[in-house]
Amino acid sequence: MRIFQIEANKNFSVIVASNRIFVVAVLDATARSSTGVLRGSIFNMGNFDQCLSSRAPFETKYCLATIRANIPRPIEPRINEKSLYFDPNENVLQRLYKYEDKTQQSRNVINMGWCVPSSCPTADLENSLNLHFESESTLLDEYNVTYKANINEIFCQSESESIYFDNLDISFCVLCVIIVVLVVGGSSYDFSRVKKFESKHDKSTFTEKMLLAFSVKKNFVDLTKIDERNNALKILYGIKTFSILLIIMDHRFGTTVSSAIFNFDFVERQYRSPFACFIFHGDLFVDTFFMFSGLLVTYGLLGQFEKRNINPGFIIILRYIRLTPVYAFVIFYYATLFNHTGNGPLWKLIVGGDYQACRKNWWTNLLYINNYVNADNMCMTHSWYLPCDFHYFIIAIIICLLIKKQKKVGLFALLMVVLISLIIPFLITVIYQRPSMLFFYPDFLTNPKQHIDFLLTYSKSHTRATPYFVGMFSGYIYHKLKGSNYHIPMKKSLMILTGSIILLLATILTAAFFYDPYHPYNAIESGFYASLHRAAWAIGSIGLLYVASFGHAIPLKNILTWSPWIPLSKLIYSAYLIHMQFQLRIAAKVSAPVKIGYFDCISSALSDMVLAFISALVLYLAIEAPLRNIFKELLYPSRPPTAGKETIEGEPVIEDDVVKRMVHNSKEITSRL
Asked: Which residue range forms the structural domain that includes residue 198?
């Protein structure tokens, strides 16, 4: 009751005593005591919605107060401080004391929900709570346990905060309306045009082509189109789709754990389970994408360099045009409407954090430097992947040019780049005495952007490069085998397939040794694992791809080349960009601790996958494909469709005559823009 005395000068104390409904609603929305602390539940949220909808004669606000118990070290410390087993007859301080074990949730901290008048400053609320703890007795007073309360403004919310729309929010809404109008207009024109003027289909004016770029019919046909040119690489459709599904599932588990759960002891047990490495070391699935990207870029570039001279600058521009429009749209969404899609006790911390970061640091994302510049306040935490891939792409162009001019020099340069990419993580791990990988412990999951290992090794281009450049070697091999009748014998296929599976399983399961809290830290050992495990994963993935492409792995090939994977694989980029917002939104709006389990996470992940790919389809049809069509028309004026032309990761390469035309007629292209 002490916190309400702050409003005594407004006769609030009199109102409290009146037992009116709104008074009871405010008091009832406030958490009374902690529950489930021994199981690792550190949230008792009260009732967030009831607080903000109490209809009091004053505006209310909901705050999460962090209360920390300063527990002295037990007189008789535990013999095994890292054990998860506690004798029920032990003193409770043994369980509440914070031992040095990062796999265990702190039991001496609780976050409790408070419903107060919005006019109360957080500093006054904090002082009031601390005065309360100083004056009131508790069950642990005899053990000299003291309490310290802290209330951060980021944990306080009022109803009015979620209503306000600023000019940037309105601008995003206007942009969405414009896009919808263009899509409806382009689609309607396409249907009517095909019906009435089908014979003149190839005689569209420039303006008509710009409008037709937004046709849903045209873009959906392109989405489902099968490329028959690279049969050996068709298996990539399935592998890439499975990889993004696993990434979405891993992110679901991580975001759930980072929110309010009441059985964190379940998570603590999983940290010590070898099979949980498929979740906690799921970052390896991202390395699969790096490897495939290096393979495809090398395969495409070498094929083009054999036929014509290509301006590397324009290849980079094409890559930027391919990646940026839909990326910019998602960033714009994060910086505007995303913050208005819900509310909850953790909303300002989880969603509001990305909202503010995207408003402040959007430019680092669009320049693909966000994993180096202001990385501790990155817009969209998972976007670290994109600058890495973009940086590697530029290096790949240089190496492929060297291979074209002097094959031995180019291959030697690629080998040196691989070796350097292996040495860098080893040196960083040893010099800074860091762990072998980024551990998905509570300290990371609750604040990933500012975690030292995320900033030092996990998100940096110079520490994640090995799979990409290993993939470039495989791209070179696929280029050399293109058009040949090369086939792997049955016995050799079985050996490679078995070896690849063993290597992949060994790579991911070996992480269990480092997750084991009893495993002593050794900098050299950690350095070697940090250096080699991503290369091993890439090599194992290439082995599977190699056998499925050229060997006797017919069942595997049939599964991974299933035709529905083709359109899904084209939606992977947009699905990767958008999927996290569904997960963050649920984590942020949780109003009471939830129970976590594998079945629950898998069920939620399946929902995430469906929503992510539906959203990706919308982004593809409304933004990605239309803008790609527009830029193709600007870069290739009056050119026929690129059927039969080779591409670099889906982008047609600019030929010499087009490059010259663009250089000498830049004014014409600018006027069209």
From this structure: 167-212
